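Project standup — Tuesday

K.O.: blocked on the structure for the chain from last sprint. Re-posting the sequence here as requested.
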Amino acid sequence: MKAFITDYNNSRFWQEMPEFEKGENAMRTVRVYRDCKYQTIRGFGGAFTQASGYSYNLLPEDKREEFVKAYFSEEGLAYNLGRIHINSCDFALGNYIYIKGEDDPLDNFDLSIDEKYILPLLKAAEEYGEIELFATPWSPPAYMKTNGDMNHGGRLKKEYYGKWADYIVKFVLEMKMRGANIVWMSIQNEPAAVQTWDSCIYDAEEEGIFAASFLGPKLEEAGLGDIKLFVWDHNKEMLWDRAKGSMSVKDADKYIKGFAFHWYTGDHFDAVGITHDAFPDKELFFTEGCVEYSRFADSGEVGKAEMYAHDMLGNLNAGANGIIDWNLLLDSKGGPNHVQNYCAAPVMCKEDFSDFEKRLSYYYIGHFSRYIKKGAVRLATSRFTDAVEAGAFENPDGSVVVLLLNRTDSDNWFCLTDGAESRTFTLPAHSIVTVLM
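H.V.: unblocked you, prediction finished:
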């Protein structure tokens, strides 16, 4: 076995640990079950927002290269997934769409704003390997909505369901022409939230209808039927209710291939598990989470990093197939954001954009993304105490990755075993360890 630790209190980051001692202790065991296999893992990634692309563009050239390597190379986080927004989102310089207005035909579709900020960062990332993208709209153009505004909620007018679907298909085709590989797509970001930024309300049935009667068929007509449509893309506590509601719509099962969720209302890992068990042929993606300044500004670097690891372990153990963090990069304020809805990212620019800083959350995420490979399957685990959080995965090459998290103030020693091989070691207080078996 090999193990790598991040232990902030002792300034260790992905540091290899000494060889473990052989030994067994039935009273203090964390067990991995190699013959109990569950969902396939699609990978890990972050969001290519306009804010991230803007901040990236302001870094010196050598720092831009260093930043991309830190996220996408095997020596960094080895990300293989990404999320992009259709039209603007809150982490943009302002509201924008790709046509001039209601009377502007889709033939005039203009992606120049994304070519300036988002696509250069995506192209640089793909120097290290293909990035599979999850696309999401925050709002249709204002004229298509009941409130005549991209912000403050509102709904998509029924008479524009077809044109909005055409607009999204056009976006995918234009992105495809530019080399972007969109594999998954949600109907709407946070469809139950009226936000001061780009937002639009759908109920569960409306999402199902739009997917099954409009967007799904139009994607097929355009030769894009392999794109997998997801619904919900909002907080976990309502995941099951929304999945059930959307899937009750006629033909929904044909077009809806999964459910996306965020973390902003707490753990709710049981809701993820319930949804997975009810729809075992659908996939589940965590598509957004960040350290909000409005709630977690004073939680400390360790607390913020542990939020990430705890949520990632809980979601994966409940059946999640992919994990996509929010912004890849932000400025020193936690923006830019056109409504000052600032937050933290795992990597932040210095105030003068001369350099960037990796936060502790970056290293905690790396304990998953560096070692759990695309195509891995989750294995069952059991543990003697909830003071040690654990998850295990078998990579396509047969190697086993075990994640161990200690969020307590005390060191915890235990025996890690798969029934054939056993080692004992100590997991320091407030540390995370990845074991390769």
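K.O.: great, moving the ticket to review. The two ends are 5 Å apart (CA to CA). The chain has a mean pLDDT of 97.
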